[in-house]
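Consortium newsletter contribution from the modelling node. Members have asked for a concrete example of what our holo predictions look like. Here is one, prepared for the adenosine-5'-triphosphate complex that several groups have been discussing at recent meetings.
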Amino acid sequence: MRGRWWSLLLTAVIVFLLAYVGLTYLDRGNEPTISYTEFSRQVDAGNVDKIYSKGDAIQGELKNARDNPEGDGDYTRFKTQRPAFADDDLWRDLSSHEVTVTAQPVVRERGVVSNLLISLAPIVIIVAVWIFVARRLGGGRGGAGGMFGRKAPPKPVELRPGTQRTTFADVAGIDEVKGELDDVVDFLEHPDAYRRMGAKMPRGVLLAGSPGTGKTLLARAVAGEAGVPFFSASASEFIEMIVGVGASRVRELFAEARKVAPSIIFIDEIDTIGRVRGGGASVSGHDEREQTLNQILTEMDGFSGSEGVIVIAATNRADILDPALTRPGRFDRVVNVSPPDRGGREAILRIHTREIPLAEDVDLTQLARTTPGMTGADLANLANEAALLAVKRQQQQVTAADLSEALEKVQLGAERTLVMPEEDRRRTAYHESGHALLGMLQPGADPVRKITIVPRGRALGVTMSTPEVERYAHSEQYLRGRIIGALGGMAAEQVVYGVVTTGAENDLEQVTNIARAMVARWGMSERVGRLSALPSDAQQAYGLSAAPQTLDVIDAEMRRIVDECYEEACRKLRDHYKQLEALAEALLESETLEEADAYRIAGVTRLTKAADA
Ligand SMILES: Nc1ncnc2c1ncn2[C@@H]1O[C@H](COP(=O)(O)OP(=O)(O)OP(=O)(O)O)[C@@H](O)[C@H]1O
Ligand SMILES: [Zn+2]
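And here is the predicted structure:
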């Protein structure tokens, strides 16, 4: 749309210029100018055929060509200017003394059109220059340079039938995430069905995950699956612009997307503008950031919900995002995109070697096993490097040797350690298995849903357990179970290696919180008694504070509970060492275990809901 504007303007300028030149030329004519004296001589001689006059300007034609006394050659067509004194005595005097009179117009006469053009010309030029400068400054980086090298506006990705488009088939290893986006696709495919039902549509989806995990790819695939136009912009592009342009670019982007709805707007690096607001002194550029963010939020709030424009944003810093972004009606759906596990890596490798002829000796399953910690982008890069090597060596196929050399190269060139050291993986596997096994063995504990040693964020591994039904009151036994489970990672390291590592910081934080609340808030310690020994904020407002002696007792009681739990955790893990080992080995092999597999491998019967209570 911007492109069309620009060319319209240019055409207009060119037409104006041509018209101007043409009219001035016509105005001037090409007949020689003769003096008024010569003209009246020809009139007297009866040689003037016809004249045209406008004001004092006279153009005309002679009956017979005549030698031009004031120029070279003969002339028949002429023009002249009548002097203001043509009717006065002065003229007669001058004529009788053979004075040649040549008059000049006071103001050069011009047509209405050319006058208009001339007064408009400077305005046109100023506007053109202004737009040009604004574009140069506001163009941002990247993008295909159009006329004058400006940034091309976001264009919907080509989705003509027959052209290759990204679909879910191009995305692997993150099946749960695909599942979460299925209904977005469905909505984009049949917006009318939803509209008829008066159903509220998702407006914004936030994809959160570390770099290279395929967030952009996913957004494209959603558009591809639904067959709708895809607009993509990077949030950092918005704030590089001069003030006010970021917000107006956002406005344009949304307007474009609405025009071709249903459609998808993808905003990468949303954290660059979506950081928590009001942090510290206002740095310049701050305002632009805020204006741009506000514009995005305003546009999203403005959706009637049936327009069919879905905004997908991506970030690798979901933790620093302004909560205003994730409010209902905005990016209220947050989808975590984590790096792939072994199976996922294998699937991704298959996708990225689809077009590459592989030699017999290539074993992608094995390759997936040796690349823990690598993301989709890393693996795509790996496959490409191997292909490049094969070409350089003039081979017909990519061999296992090419792949392992490419792996070395990719690892050397990477800023971070791509492949997790085996020792760390093993320790993490035991750590997580410790959490999980104790969680499974603890009567009444929340069931274990998933165990993984695929690092996400700062965590090397995660064991997830969620209650079957939301509970509002907790028994002391349940809370102790939680502490034992949380200490399970550390206990496993203690039991298996005899030492513990720093990986348990988060666990201890959790343990401390539970133990403190048990002792000081929930009256679960005899020595502290049934007091809220650590006053709440409201109580503090009334001047309540804990006595120093009480603090000592709280401390001692927390320690006692945690020590007892740790003892129990270690004892249980020793008693069930075989199961711990089985879980850890299974984790090392496949990196992720779902609920059913985890219970099966650990040989623990999943307690029923009734037993939970
Ligand atoms: N799950 C995956 N399946 C297949 N290919 C993937 C996957 N993840 C990443 N890739 C490959 O890596 C490339 C880069 O991924 P993409 O740009 O989507 O990652 P991203 O999460 O958006 O990264 P960033 O946060 O750096 O923008 C993709 O174009 C694709 O080739
Ligand atoms: Zn842990």
